[in-house]
Amino acid sequence: MKNRLQCAVALLVVSAAAMAQATAQSGPVAAKPAAHPELSLTYTYIRSNAPPAGCGCFSLQGGAGSLAWPVRAGRFSLVGSVTDTSARNIPGYGEGLNLSFFAAGIRYRPGTERSAWHPFGQAIIGVAHTSGALVQAEYSATTNARAALASSIGGGLDIRLSRSFSLRLIEAEYLLTTFDNSTNDRQNSLDLSAGIVFRLGR
Predict the structure, then answer these.
(1) What is the pTM of this model?
(2) Range of the domain at 13
């Protein structure tokens, strides 16, 4: 899991550096602070009810990285994100699970350039991948563990610390995955994150 997350974060950093260089070479632009690309690295906590009977809730922890590229004067951004989490000894099963989520979508920020507080909302869609004994055991009903459609919708709040850094106080999203479970083939999860945001291209 750590290797996958490290590789994903490395790809995001390299992409961000390339975008920042391209922005710098295009010449000085009188842009608002919110119109700069943003790279975020966060700790992620997911509360899931993957077992279809009742709640059957359990927790996964890990990390996430996202890159937001602004369009339309910075109010909207195109977003790409990678999340990697895991859980051990899931209650009722005693098995472990790794859950990864690769997605892209759109983010909206209201016009709060003059404030240190920056709320946002976003919707993304992509592919979820699972591994571990919970989905790989012989009794598992999950036949699409390698790739299942997933989507997420929610928002968050950042506080600007400087021209280049912000603190992501909270990001809360509803995460829907569609892994086979022989009942309804969907899992509803609460995805919570917090971390740091790097504002690029200054």
Answers:
(1) 0.76
(2) 2-199
Rg (CA), the chain: 18
Round to whole Å and give the CA distance between 149 and 147: 7
Q: Quick count: other Cβ atoms within 10 Å of Cβ 145?
A: 20
Q: How many CA atoms lie within 13 A of 14 on its CB side?
A: 6
Task: State the CB neighbour count (10 A cutoff) for residue 75.
Answer: 15
For position 137, what pLDDT does the model report? 65
Q: What is the pLDDT of residues 175-202, one digit of tens each?
A: 999 988 777 888 899 999 999 999 987 6
The three-state secondary structure class of 123 is: strand
**Torsion angles phi and psi, residue 114, rounded to 5:** -85, -5
What is the spatial distance between Cα 85 and Cα 83, in angstroms, rounded to a whole number?
Answer: 7
Q: What is the CATH number of the domain that holds 195?
A: 2.40.160.20
Answer yes or no: is pLDDT of 44 > 70. yes
Residue whose token pair is 């600007």: 160
- Measured CA to CA, the distance from residue 80 to residue 78 in angstroms comes to 7
Domain count, the chain: 1
- How far apart (Å, rounded) are the C-alpha atoms in residues 171 and 130? 22
